[in-house]
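re: that chain from earlier
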Amino acid sequence: MFSEFKEFVSRGNVIDLAVGIIIGAAFTAIVKSVVGDLINPFIGLFMAGVDVSGLYIPLSMKSYESLAAAESEGAAVFAYGRFLMAVINFLIVAFVLFSMIKAINSLRRKNESESIAEEAPEPEPEKGPTQEELLTEIRDLLRETKPSS
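^ sequence. v structure.
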């Protein structure tokens, strides 16, 4: 059983997947920074300085100073600002992944077309009949046209 597991782990796909997960985790930190540090303030500029990620609706009759204050008291809240930020994060990640996959696919297609062009042998020019074949044909034609005596 251990040898089967070792074979499974040593396959290229599993290692590629592990590398992808690690890079994805690092990329998530970058996206969170882009959204939190660049996009959020820009959106807040248009919303009179309101932090979008802090937008919420308390599900009780009591009002709170902020989302953090409501959560610290254990109040039920509808934190739609966080949801909006999660949607923006998703859209950024999806767009970047789409762009990367599109670029990879175009490179792959380019490499495949180049390798096919290299592998395909050049077509040989059509060969005509050999000298012997021509002479045989001439001889046969002469026999047919020769008057019989």
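The CA atoms of residues 35 and 89 lie 7 Å apart.
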